[in-house]
Amino acid sequence: MFRFPRLMPLTRGLLIATAVSFVLHAVVQVWVRSPWGLILALQTHAASPWTALQVVTHPLAWRIGPGSPVSLLMQLVFTWWAVSPFEERYGARATAQLLSFATVAAGVLAALAGLVSPPDIVAGPGTWMLAGWAALGWSLRHATLDFAGLQVRGVAYLWAALIMVALSFLTDPRLPTLFAELAAIGAGVAFVAYRRRRLPATRTSSVVSIGAARAARDKKNKEWLN
Description:
- There is one protein chain.
- The chain is mainly alpha-helical.
- It is globular and about 50 Å long.
- Helix 1 crosses helix 3 (68-113).
- The chain contains 8 helices and 4 strands.
């Protein structure tokens, strides 16, 4: 049976910040109609003095439209599903480092892609979701995890992230956004690969059973589950 992972403190804070940011963007863009409504989003059509800020703030930016409330709900659910299991296993500090690294990597690569592609606006917490799935899937690639009620190898989380990016680009081919999403996935894998000896000790989480964790520890995944 499918169940959401436990909601951890840092993830809860990210969800609250995302919801508050959405409300503020809705007020500024829809009701105030301010030209500063997208100041936090990464606008790739031209470099500006704001670009350095936007590289960091784009996950909290929103382009408000008629379907935005549904988009907000989906983003909140998937961010919870993607980030909270990593925080539960490795702690808030490692999670904050992962998301910071993924945010900057996605922003920089999107900005560079924007120099040779049509204008684009990169916004929303999808960067965090993809980085969380990629990092969790790669760190537990040999373990058995619960994925939407199915018992699968951890690497399925990484494949799910890649499939979502491919389908998104198929329906909305924006090159800077594609590069930002791929950078977030790559950042998740790279963070785990680089920090594997320095990640804090893991705890058995709500997405990995004790039996599966012990089996994986005894076989191929000792460095993660010891």
